Amino acid sequence: xxxxxxxxxxxxxxxxxxxxxxxxxxxxxxxxxxxxxxxxxxxxxxxxxxxxxxxxxxxxxxxxxxxxxxxxxxxxxxxxxxxxxxxxxxxxxxxxxxxxxxxxxxxxxxxxxxxxxxxxxxxxxxxxxxxxxxxxxxxxxxxxxxxxxxxxxxxxxxxxxxxxxxxxxxxxxxxxxxxxxxxxxxxxxxxxxxxxxxxxxxxxxxxxxxxxxxxxxxxxxxxxxxxxxxxxxxxxxxxxxxxxxxxxxxxxxxxxxxxxxxxxxxxxxxxxxxxxxxxxxxxxxxxxxxxxxxxxxxxxxxxxxxxxxxxxxxxxxxxxxxxxxxxxxxxxxxxxxxxxxxxxxxxxxxxxxxxxxx
Length: 358
Ligand SMILES: C[S@@+](CC[C@H](N)C(=O)[O-])C[C@H]1O[C@@H](n2cnc3c(N)ncnc32)[C@H](O)[C@@H]1O
Fold this sequence. Notes:
The protein is α/β, with parallel strands linked by helices.
């Protein structure tokens, strides 16, 4: 057989790309260290600092910090002023690396690939056997990483943009309704809604006991525990309460039987109730999902979302890049007559479903 003819320019570009990705993988460890050790916070708003000053502010050893700072400068994560040999975190870098309340705060999201690496033996086994891996079987950094990744986006968008994009829902929340947050995880979405709408009552359901405990702690800390209850329950066994709003935040595609979950949502909804479905942003055709966001989601979907859906029997394993058309079909099969896109962000589709067409 003839040796394949190599396009050397293409090879070089691809090797460069693979090296960039490898460096980014190493860089994730550096970001996590910078976050956990308070190095970014020590630099935020402080102007140019020597390595010694950064180390002193963060209470760390100078030699380690100076090497870390050079890793950050090489990555473009901090600026280095060569003449004064000082390092500076620009305001834009601080928003991404130091400000926990910023909608673009990234460091805790590195917990997700950390858990994916830790879980590699399970994933190898799953690929070979076809068996599932449940959400709660993963390294504990997964739940924290996912909750932190989505929390700031929810904080920026859920109350000011997504809920108002749903037909008539804000008025009903202001008046006072019962709301279900299915697959609530650490409950950040539930707590945000409870803070914004004190006349409504909120019920978070999840199968993962640790997440429910964490969600209860968040509600206590936010001072909304009087109107928020978290309970361990599967999406297909949510108790009937005549909910005015049923939410699925980034979880429908994780479920082993999304049609059954959507059907249950229809059963527990009030007559004029609304389902808010928040799913990872995706276009309908895989060939149109080829950007950075799709790359993140397909990777997480491979080891986490599909693996969990399979662990629950895998009637329909949607994956994290299902797209609106397939999600609409789930709700059609579950008996909903109305389904539309209410809003979108680079990371999320916000979809509205009702049992009857308006
Ligand atoms: C990707 S996380 C999303 C968590 C949260 N909604 C958020 O946006 O941060 C998916 C969640 O779905 C939960 N989950 C998985 N299967 C479930 C089921 N059958 N019923 C209820 N929750 C489930 C998991 O335990 C996990 O907390």
